Amino acid sequence: MSDSTGQSALDTFPRLLMHHARVRPNRPAMREKEYGIWQTYSWAQVAENVRAIACGLAELGFKRGDRLAIIGDNRPRLYWSVAACQCLGGIPVMLYQDAVAQEMAYVLQDAEIKFAVVEDQEQVDKMLEIHPEVPFLEHVIYDDPRGMRHYTQTLLKGLDELQEMGRIHDRNQSDFLNGEIDKGASDDISVMLYTSGTTGKPKGVCQTHGAFIAAAQGGAQFDRLSEQEDILSYLPMAWVGDHLFSFAQAMVAGFTINCPESGETVMTDLREIGPTYYFAPPRVFEGLLTQVMIRMEDAGWIKRKIFHHFMDVARRCGAEILDGKPVSGADRFQYWLGSMFVYGPLKNVLGMSRIRVAYTAGAAIGPDLFRFYRSIGINLKQLYGQTETCAYVCLQPDGQIKLDSVGKPAPQVEVKLADNGEILVKGPMLLKAYYKRPDATAESINADGYFMTGDAGFFDEDGHLKIIDRAKDVGKLTDGSMFAPNYIENKLKFFQHIKEAVAFGNGRDFVTAFINIDLEAVGNWAERKGMAYSGYTDLAQQGAVYELIRDGIEKVNAELASDPMMSASQIKRFLVLHKELDADDGELTRTRKVRRNFISERYAVLIEALYEGRKEQYIETPVKYEDGREGKIAATLRIEEAKTFPARGARQAA
C-alpha cells in the first residue's frame, strides 16, 4: 500500500477504485491486446468507464442486491462490469466461459440472474439457448459486437450503447453514483463464485469486500507488491485465484492487469509483457515444461548436451542459490555460465525474465516440477486456499521454500488440525455464506468458527503445512496402509508423457491406475521413432507407448517405496484410456479436477478388469463433441503390469 491517507475508509472495491483514480490517475491500470496492438487504460479512464457501465445498468433498472452474471475471457470491460456492479451494491457472479449452456443454466437459475454481461456472439448464443429455462433473465449485454448485426431479440444490448446511456444518466444525476458507492459497506457481498462441484452441484460462495480486501492486503504485504507490478490475467474470471490476483490485489496495490488477445496467444503475450508477478495452476507449469522438453528433443545433439549439462548444474545448486544458501565457488561459476547459455534464454522463451514472485495453487505440484522452475532462478512458490477462503490460507515465505509443503499460515490466518487430520482455518477471509444454502454454511463452519476445508494434512517440524489429499479421498488398502490417490496422481503427472491419471485402491489389495497420455508429447516422441498412428485412441494402445508409460510408473513406484507412509501404494496394474478425460463429458470439473465418483461409475467395467487380472477389456464410451453432437468411442484396451519395489527406509526431503 503506497498511500495511507483515508486508508480506513478504503473498505470496498469501488472506494479503492476511485482512490486510485484520484491518487494515480495516469498510471496504467489495464492493458488489452487487440488486433496485435496493446491498448492501455489509466486508472482515471477505468474509473470513467466503470461509472458509465454502472449508471447504464441503473438506467436499465439494476438495483442493490441484484446479481449480474459475467461470462467471457479476461477482458477489461468484463472486469469493469464487476466493479460497476459493486458500485451499485450488486453482486457479480462469474461463470466459466467454456461451460456448456446447460451448466450455465444451473448457475443462472440458482443465482436468480436478471442481468448478464457477456463477451461475444458465442456467449450470447448460449444465453438465448437457455433463456426459456431462465425466464427471469431480462437483459443480456454484449461486449464484442462482431456477428451481432442481425440479432433482433429485445433482451440484447451492446455494451457501447449501455455506456452511452450511462454517461447521459451520469450527466443528468451527477451525484447518483457517488451516493450509491457511499452506501456500500465492508460486510456487503462483493462477489459470488461457484465451487467446482467435484462431489455434487456447485454452490455459490458469497464473499464480502472485507474478506477479499483482507486476503489481498495480506498477500501484498507478504510479497511486498507495489503499483509497479505487471500481471497477465488469462485464467478464468470465475476462478477464485484470478479474482484474488487479477482483481482484488490489483485494486489494493494499484498494479497493472494485462489481458491477452486470446487463449492461443497467451505465450506470445506473456513474453511481450514480461510480468513481474505471475500465477498459474500446476497444469500450466507442466504444459510449459513439456513444450520445452519437446523442443529440446528436436534440437541438435550439441544443444541437447549443453542443455542437459547445465540442467544438472541447476538441479544441484540452483534452488540453493535462489534461496541465498551457501554454494561452492565452482558450482556458482558453472551456474553463472548456465544463466548465460541456458537459464536466461529459457526464461526469456517462457516470458519469465522479469518475474519477482510466481505462485502456483489449485492442486498439488510435483516436487520435481517445482524444483525445475526454482533451479533456473524463477521464484516459484506455492499457496494454499479455497474459494471459501478467498484462495488465502498458507503462503511460502522467501528463503523458506520446501518442495513438498504449502508454507506457513498467511498473515491474520489461523490453521489447526482436527483429530482426523482435517485442516481447519479461521480468519477475516472466510465466506459469509453459501448462497441460499444455510444448511451447507452451517455444515462447513464448526462451533468454534473454523472453516472445515475437507483437506487432510499435517505440520512438519518447522511449522509448514503439508497437504496429503482430500480428506474424503484418503482411504485404506485392505492391509490397513494409507491410500491417497491425489498424491500418487500428481507424481505420475510430472512425466511429460502423462497428462492425466486416476488411481484406485481404497478397500482393495493393491493400487491400479488409468492413464491419459499427452497427445502432443507422445505424438512427437512417436514421430521421431517413425511410428504411424491415426489419432489418440490408436496411439494410446500401441505397445511402445505402454512401455513408455510403464517406465514412468515404475519410477514413481521406486519413489513410493522409499516413503514409509506410501510404500504400499505402488501401482501394480494399469491401462491407458482410449479417450482423454474431458470436462464436457463430466469426467473433470472446469478447473480440471478429477470427478472420482463419476469416473468410477462410468468406467466400472475397466476397474473390474484391472482387479480381476484380465489382459484386455472392450469398452464403449459416449462422448460430446465441441459442436454439440454426441457419439461413441469404442476400443479394446490392453491391461499391463508394472514392477513394484520392496519398501525402503524414510528418504531425506528434497
UniProtKB/TrEMBL annotation:
InterPro entries named among the record's database cross-references: AMP-binding_CS, AMP-dep_synth/lig_dom, ANL_N_sf
Span of domain AMP-dependent synthetase/ligase: 19-435
Keyword Endoplasmic reticulum: no
UniProt KW keywords: ATP-binding, Ligase, Nucleotide-binding
Single GO molecular function: ATP binding
Cellular component GO terms held in the UniProt record: membrane
Pfam families xref list: AMP-binding, AMP-binding_C_3
Xref: PANTHER family: AMP-BINDING DOMAIN-CONTAINING PROTEIN-RELATED, LONG-CHAIN-FATTY-ACID--COA LIGASE
Protein name according to UniProt: Long-chain fatty acid--CoA ligase
Lineage: Bacteria, Pseudomonadati, Pseudomonadota, Betaproteobacteria, Rhodocyclales
